């Protein structure tokens, strides 16, 4: 009496819970099965209170539905008499003196899954939850990413470095320390140049300039001494520019004490209080100190 089996049918079965068929299982393998007293039904109940063809279970519109076939004593689902009802997993079906438990595993179809996905996508609560989750992940990732160092925040290309000192503006001083005088100008110039290289490589660019200049005065024709002065002066401007810009970064982030320290070191390198660039930095320091005083801090 079974109809033709559908291409795809969800897994379902009737499990005897009470009565004649207790603990027996009947798998639903067709889109319609019949339950009754006489042979020829898919599930046979040898019970006089059961009609010859008592009920049927059909697969319709993605649901299993039980229907009473005008039986004498009817059917009940979960204690309530029904003539037709959509079955859910674990429903208890009573026919005559037998009770079945309906076990059902819904079939997940791609079309339905897509529909549920679309519904989830238009649910404002779910959208908000997803957005918060994504935001939390992004915050964590940003915190895990390596941050730029102060040096990386500032340009290091010579083309981007502001010139704070020219050779004519530099207060040239005699080299520090003693260098033995050999009486040979070429040898004495070489000694100053060597000492200048040491100062340059250790980042003491002003002292390097003084040494290179002393060598140049002794041997004006030696181009490498003039080149040494030029290179050390460029490095000195880079150093001043670095501290000025780093001070601005601190100031922009309200780290005023750090800004003052950077700018005062730049003033130490420039040294000449009459230079416009010195006065400009000094003015910036004055402005920042006034801000600190407004916040009740002093420096």
Automatic annotation (TrEMBL):
TPR repeats lie at residues 189-222. The chain crosses the membrane at residues 127-145. Keywords: Membrane, TPR repeat, Transmembrane, Transmembrane helix. Residues 33-82 form the FHA domain. It holds the Pfam family FHA. Gene3D superfamilies: 2.60.200.20, Tetratricopeptide repeat domain. PANTHER family: NUCLEAR INHIBITOR OF PROTEIN PHOSPHATASE-1. This is FHA domain-containing protein. It comes from candidate division CSSED10-310 bacterium.
């Amino acid at each position: 009496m079974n109809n033709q089996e559908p291409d795809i049918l969800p897994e379902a079965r009737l499990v005897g819970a009470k009565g004649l068929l207790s603990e027996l299982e009947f798998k639903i393998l067709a889109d319609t099965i019949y339950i009754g007293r006489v042979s020829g039904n898919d599930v046979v109940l040898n019970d006089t209170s059961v009609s010859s063809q008592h009920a049927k279970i059909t697969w319709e519109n993605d649901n299993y539905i039980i229907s009473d076939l005008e039986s004498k004593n009817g059917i009940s689902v979960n204690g309530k008499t029904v003539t037709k009802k959509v079955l859910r997993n674990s429903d208890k079906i009573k026919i005559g003196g037998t009770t079945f438990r309906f076990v059902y595993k819904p079939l997940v179809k791609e079309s339905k899954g897509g529909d549920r996905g679309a519904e989830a996508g238009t649910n404002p609560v779910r959208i908000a939850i997803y957005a918060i989750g994504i935001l939390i992940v992004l915050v964590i990732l940003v915190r895990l990413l390596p941050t730029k160092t102060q040096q990386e925040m500032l340009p290091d290309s010579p083309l981007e470095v502001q010139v704070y000192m020219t050779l004519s503006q530099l207060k040239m001083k005699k080299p520090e320390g003693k260098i033995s005088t050999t009486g040979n100008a070429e040898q004495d110039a070489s000694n100053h140049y060597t000492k200048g290289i040491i100062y340059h490589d250790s980042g003491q660019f002003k002292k390097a300039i003084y040494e290179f200049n002393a060598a140049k005065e002794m041997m004006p024709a030696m181009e490498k001494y003039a080149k040494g002065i030029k290179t050390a002066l460029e490095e000195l401007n880079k150093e001043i520019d670095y501290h000025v810009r780093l001070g601005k970064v601190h100031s922009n982030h309200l780290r005023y004490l750090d800004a003052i320290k950077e700018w005062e070191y730049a003033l130490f390198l420039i040294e000449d209080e009459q230079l416009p660039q010195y006065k400009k930095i000094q003015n910036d320091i004055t402005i920042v100190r006034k801000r600190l005083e407004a916040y009740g801090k002093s420096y």
